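Hey,
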Amino acid sequence: MRITVIVPCYNGEKYLKESLNSCLNQTYENMEVIFVDNESTDNSLQEAIEIKEKYSSLVIDTAPNLYKYSAREPVEKALTLASGDYFTIVGADDVITKDYISNVVDKIKLNNNDCLCIQSGIRRVFPDGNFDHVIHQYNNIEEFKSKLLNYCCVNTPTVFYKKKLYEDGLLDWKSDEYLGAEDYDVYCQLADKGIMVSVCNEWLGYFYRIHEDQCTWKMVEESRKGNNFDHRIKSFWSSKWEKRIGND
């Protein structure tokens, strides 16, 4: 099973070296790392080029920055280059343990390689050095849909997608409508088609860094301004699914 690790980056110079090194030093061998710069105004691209001098296998490319707080453009660019059976997206400010990819692959194999997408627990690291764990749980597609109508019950950075989902047009990141909240809508789209993000209720090695420059933080600020994209997503899918039930 080949895995593609996509590292999209916009002004991630501060943490990029640590992030890329963690991706490039995995115990799992059948994998590739694709870095795509999203028109950074800092030295992120140059930092990646310097890292490539040591790790020649690192793939580097660029993509236009069309939607703020969204990784859609660099991710879709990377997918045109990807050769993996599954892909995952690692933040340029995050870190994974050296056995992380191997741990996730083991979980996928437990499902006889049939799972279309899977998430696991995440360790959030705060600016003061403290951390917590976030793990979601649901047992079937109906529970998954029910939870999605309340909150995004997916640890987005930990998701591994079968590439076929993208090739079949089932991953539609609507960044033009939802900016950085587009992943939440994608999970609802999948649920609408009867596809559940499988759950591994363990922490497998993903460190998610919390800081004021990250896109998630910026999306919270958008909500405070009155642009509550999560609410819009929940309202849309609640209305659609309620109408469907009413017509059954």
